């Protein structure tokens, strides 16, 4: 294979059942973040491509030629086909995003489950019977509700889970009966296009699945603000997400955004297990996850032992090529992000934090997994989303103090608490203002069927097939008067 030969040959983007090899702005190259290898060439779409795709989706909705039984079949067959091709998809994920191959395999397996859960929900979701005769005006009336598709769905996905987060948008939309126009992240469109190929090959009617590749400022904005789009599902940064919602005030804009997820490790607790889990939860995919464990608050009485358990595990993580079967941590998505890590670490150390391990970049944009102790509250590593392989450790004396520090954030996606005290666990569950509070687990844990999402700057939705289908459908009341 020559240097200019792409690893994946893709037919283009899918619009109205037809594959288009070039976009309004020509083509773009997808390069591997680790070594710059050419992964694929994809269309560089623009607003005219978006308009064609949305019109095709709107026409599909009017045709109404994708009945529920067919949608169930497609979802089930997609789950089976993904399962058969997990390694193929995992290699695409690893190449385009620099996610280590063994972690990419986990993502591919999760996408199988996401489609399987969506298929199960597609078989069973339904409306309700309304007791109209419970009041005199409803006497002799029969009432029930239907769950009808909300309309055309615009799905905008991020780079860090280029297959499974696409699945979390596309699979529920298919289940709900909503045509989709997908814009994958411009850095990582390959997995999404491979998935679209798979769906197209399973007989999805024209216009029900459309994929337009291109940048957020061109394709993303045009898609979110298009008059024929009824529902926008966006995963990405808080700044971009809330700005997008402001541009589309009359649409349902559902946002799954970032966080700086806290973990409280109390005494008494199984702090050894906590340290073991943190050693991966803070550094998997180089910390590029919105629920990556970032702020760790450890009771002062166990902090020394916790760090003694944690630091050797962090230092033993294997760094390097994402295609190496043994790699634990590879590079960040861009070299600018690697430089940002160093800048944020230097700021924290200048403010008084102790650098316990890491803190430097090595070859190919890999940043060494980093542990900082005691950064001031106002430093960026403590109050912003790092989205990189850095965790902070802060000692505390009182559990209420730890709850307060964990909650002092503009984000609120998931929080974790390790404790063997049931009263403290219940207090944390009630008081922490997050979309999820995980007891005796790290905040980085997610099951694909759970209601997943946050509050505050972390978003305004709950994903997971059952919950997404609810939001992608509207309730329609039907009454029958004899």
From TrEMBL:
<keyword id="KW-0560">Oxidoreductase</keyword>
<protein>
    <submittedName>
        <fullName>Acyl-CoA reductase</fullName>
    </submittedName>
</protein>
<dbReference type="InterPro" id="IPR016162">
    <property type="entry name" value="Ald_DH_N"/>
</dbReference>
<feature type="domain" description="Aldehyde dehydrogenase">
    <location>
        <begin position="19"/>
        <end position="477"/>
    </location>
</feature>
<dbReference type="Pfam" id="PF00171">
    <property type="entry name" value="Aldedh"/>
</dbReference>
<dbReference type="InterPro" id="IPR051020">
    <property type="entry name" value="ALDH-related_metabolic_enz"/>
</dbReference>
<dbReference type="InterPro" id="IPR015590">
    <property type="entry name" value="Aldehyde_DH_dom"/>
</dbReference>
<dbReference type="InterPro" id="IPR016161">
    <property type="entry name" value="Ald_DH/histidinol_DH"/>
</dbReference>
<dbReference type="GO" id="GO:0008911">
    <property type="term" value="F:lactaldehyde dehydrogenase (NAD+) activity"/>
</dbReference>
<comment type="similarity">
    <text>Belongs to the aldehyde dehydrogenase family.</text>
</comment>
<dbReference type="InterPro" id="IPR016163">
    <property type="entry name" value="Ald_DH_C"/>
</dbReference>
């Amino acid at each position: 294979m020559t240097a200019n030969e792409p690893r994946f040959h893709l037919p283009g983007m899918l619009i109205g059942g037809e594959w288009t090899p070039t976009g309004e702005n020509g083509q773009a190259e997808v390069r591997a973040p680790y070594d710059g290898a050419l992964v694929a060439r994809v269309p560089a779409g623009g607003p005219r491509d978006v308009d064609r795709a949305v019109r095709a989706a709107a026409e599909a909705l009017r045709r109404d030629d994708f009945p529920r039984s067919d949608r169930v079949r497609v979802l089930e067959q997609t789950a089976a086909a993904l399962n058969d091709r997990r390694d193929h998809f995992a290699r695409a994920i690893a190449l385009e995003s620099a996610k280590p191959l063994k972690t990419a395999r986990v993502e591919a397996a999760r996408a199988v489950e996401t489609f399987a859960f969506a298929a199960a929900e597609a078989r069973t979701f339904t409306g309700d019977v309304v007791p109209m005769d419970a009041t005199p005006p409803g006497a002799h009336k029969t009432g029930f509700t239907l769950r009808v598709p909300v309309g055309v769905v615009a799905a905008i996905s991020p780079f860090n889970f280029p297959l499974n987060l696409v699945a979390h948008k596309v699979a529920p939309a298919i289940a709900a009966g909503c045509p989709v126009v997908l814009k994958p992240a411009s850095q990582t469109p390959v997995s999404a296009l491979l998935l679209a190929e798979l769906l197209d090959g399973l007989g999805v009617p024209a216009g029900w699945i459309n994929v337009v590749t291109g940048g957020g400022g061109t394709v993303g904005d045009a898609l979110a603000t298009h008059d024929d789009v009824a529902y926008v599902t966006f995963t990405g940064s808080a700044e971009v997400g809330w700005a997008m919602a402001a541009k589309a005030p009359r649409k349902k804009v559902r946002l799954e955004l970032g966080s700086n997820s806290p973990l409280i490790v109390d005494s008494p607790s199984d702090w050894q297990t906590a340290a073991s889990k943190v050693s991966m939860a803070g550094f998997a995919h180089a910390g590029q996850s919105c629920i990556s464990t970032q702020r760790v608050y450890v009771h002062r009485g166990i902090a020394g032992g916790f760090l003694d358990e944690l630091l050797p595990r962090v230092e033993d993580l294997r760094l390097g090529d994402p295609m190496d079967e043994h790699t634990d941590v590879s590079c960040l998505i861009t070299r600018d992000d690697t430089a940002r890590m160093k800048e944020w670490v230097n700021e924290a150390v200048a403010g008084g934090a102790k650098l316990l391990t890491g803190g430097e970049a090595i070859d190919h944009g890999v940043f060494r997994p980093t542990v900082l102790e005691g950064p001031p509250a106002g430093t960026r590593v403590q109050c912003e989303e790092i989205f990189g392989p850095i965790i902070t450790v802060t000692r505390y004396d009182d559990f209420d103090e730890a709850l307060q520090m964990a909650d002092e954030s503009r984000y609120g996606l998931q929080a974790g608490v390790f404790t063997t005290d049931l009263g403290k666990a219940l207090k944390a569950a009630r008081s922490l203002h997050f979309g999820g509070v995980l007891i005796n687990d790290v905040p980085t844990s997610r099951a694909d069927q759970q209601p997943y999402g946050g509050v505050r700057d972390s978003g305004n939705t709950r994903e997971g097939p059952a919950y997404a289908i609810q939001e992608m459908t509207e309730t329609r009341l039907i009454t029958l008067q004899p």
